[in-house]
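Exercise 7. Given the encoded structure of a 342-residue chain, write a plausible sequence.
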């Protein structure tokens, strides 16, 4: 009997590349689909097929998921900026963030025979929009405020409606603030923790748009990848609804960024950079100033998953990865490196 074939869409992205590393350690067949060829993780146990494709082009989605028993939809529109935000009316963003879900449903609906394929979609906890609650548990009414969250919610509803119609067996995993780097990381993390680590390594002050009391549920990337694979393993039990992922702990960003400054100082031998409050930019949203903690007990009970990486270790790995990256860049420029970082 052949092992299951898993089509991983968005295999070079921040989330997708981590899921690829997790799947590569299993005795499965993986079709890694992305605009540019995905690097096969070293020592892969899985049979990894690399497929470079623009999924927005006609016919590419159907070809990408042909014969797949499982589909992980981890695609994300990128405008080559430092953030995932999109502007209202951005048709290119809507085409990726929502349109690919419609294309996936159309491709799977055209199949004949066999059980409905499993589909795991990576959404966002922010799809709920402003709730006035400090702790989210997945029972909130969805009232997304920004274009990105509206697009992700629309995609989720397309997939869950197709599940209700028997086209597929789908679930949506809503992600909190995911961060960090682990062994073998190949994709750039554009979130606040890594962005501020890069500033500190460059000797620049770490900046916040608030007083540091805002809380975030920070989930380490490798733990997130394990959660997505748990979603595949328990697809039938999870089908037909969304589930929140998180650690259950809301961390104040001020102390987190102070930790970053100290870890960078230990790595470079320089004094810690200051952590300062600055005026928020024009594109800041209300959600940037709201505290969020995730109650993921429902997902944990359904799958047995739990975060496994202690936060200090996850933060240290992230700083070390970015410091190594900075050192390699400095050597490439022929710069003098002092204290480990130029």
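Solution.
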């Amino acid at each position: 009997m052949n092992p299951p074939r898993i089509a991983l869409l968005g295999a070079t992205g921040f989330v997708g590349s981590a899921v690829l590393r997790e799947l590569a350690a299993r005795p499965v067949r993986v079709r890694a689909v992305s605009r540019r060829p995905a690097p096969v993780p070293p020592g892969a146990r899985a049979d990894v097929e690399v497929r470079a494709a623009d999924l927005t082009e006609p016919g590419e989605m159907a070809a990408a998921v042909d014969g797949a028993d499982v589909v992980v939809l981890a695609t994300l529109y990128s405008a080559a900026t430092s953030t995932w935000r999109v502007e209202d009316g951005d048709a290119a963003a809507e085409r990726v963030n929502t349109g690919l879900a419609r294309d996936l449903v159309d491709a799977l609906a055209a199949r004949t025979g066999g059980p409905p394929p499993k589909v795991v979609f990576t959404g966002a906890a922010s799809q709920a929009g402003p709730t006035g609650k400090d702790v989210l548990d997945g029972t909130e009414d969805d009232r997304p405020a920004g274009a990105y969250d509206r697009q992700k919610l629309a995609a989720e509803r397309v997939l869950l409606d197709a599940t209700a119609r028997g086209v597929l067996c789908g679930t949506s995993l809503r992600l909190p603030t995911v961060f960090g780097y682990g062994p073998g990381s190949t994709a750039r993390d554009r979130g606040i923790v890594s962005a501020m680590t890069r500033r500190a390594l460059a000797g620049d002050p770490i900046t916040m748009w608030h007083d540091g009391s805002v809380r975030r549920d920070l989930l380490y990337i490798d733990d997130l990848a394990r959660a997505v694979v748990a979603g595949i393993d328990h697809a039938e039990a999870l089908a037909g609804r969304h589930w929140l992922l998180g650690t259950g702990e809301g961390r104040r960003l001020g102390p987190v960024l102070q930790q970053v400054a100290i870890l960078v100082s230990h790595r470079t031998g320089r004094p810690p950079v200051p952590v300062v409050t600055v005026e928020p930019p024009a594109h800041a949203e209300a959600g940037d100033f709201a505290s969020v903690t995730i109650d993921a007990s429902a997902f944990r009970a359904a799958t047995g998953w739990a975060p496994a990486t202690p936060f200090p270790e996850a933060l240290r790995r992230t700083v070390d990865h970015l410091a190594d990256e900075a050192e390699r860049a400095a050597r490439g420029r022929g710069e003098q490196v002092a204290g480990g970082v130029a």
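Remark. Residues 337-342 have pLDDT under 50 and may be disordered. Students should compare their own answers with the one above.
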